[in-house]
Amino acid sequence: MKQITLTVNGTQHRITVDESTLLLDALREQVGCFSVREGCGVGACGACTVLVDGMSVSSCLALALRYEGTEVTTVEGLDENDPVVNAFVDCDAAQCGYCIPGFVLMSCELLAENPRPTAEQITDHLEGNICRCGTYPEIRKAVATAAERNPS
């Protein structure tokens, strides 16, 4: 067992992990970030997506030890007035909601890299996320809406 420090949503956390502890489990069990969810366990669905230093990571595949000293963002860390979150709400881009945190974080990553993505770029960037309820049109609309509302 080893103690590491993760900064999660702006707060430092000292947690104890072993070499096989997944970032997903550390975030849920030791930090209390329950928006990070295991969907498939093999990095194919996006439900476990977090941002590490601004880049998307499938936390169900990531060993927690590797992320010592990094800045991890989950949807709990987004501002209550986050434009992506507001666009998802305004566009009814959630049904059961299980996958939505991953979609929101992937959308935040996309808009940070490309504030004015095309419809094709939105679809391509979200390709690794799965919505079992099939709200893809609303999700794509939410990302486009967030981009339109972006003043930059």
TrEMBL record:
Q: Which SUPFAM superfamilies match?
A: 2Fe-2S ferredoxin-like, CO dehydrogenase ISP C-domain like
- What is the name of the protein in this document? (2Fe-2S)-binding protein
Check the record and name the PROSITE patterns matching this protein. 2FE2S_FER_1, 2FE2S_FER_2
Query: Residue ranges of the 2Fe-2S ferredoxin-type domain?
Result: 2-78
Question: What Gene3D superfamilies has UniProt attached to this entry?
Answer: 3.10.20.30, [2Fe-2S]-binding domain
Q: InterPro entries, alphabetically?
A: 2Fe-2S-bd (IPR002888), 2Fe-2S-bd_dom_sf (IPR036884), 2Fe-2S_ferredoxin-like_sf (IPR036010), 2Fe-2S_ferredoxin-type (IPR001041), 2Fe2S_fd_BS (IPR006058), Beta-grasp_dom_sf (IPR012675), Diverse_Oxidoreductases (IPR051452)
Alphabetically list the UniProt keywords. Answer: 2Fe-2S, Iron, Iron-sulfur, Metal-binding, Oxidoreductase
Lineage runs: Bacteria, Bacillati, Actinomycetota, Actinomycetes, Pseudonocardiales
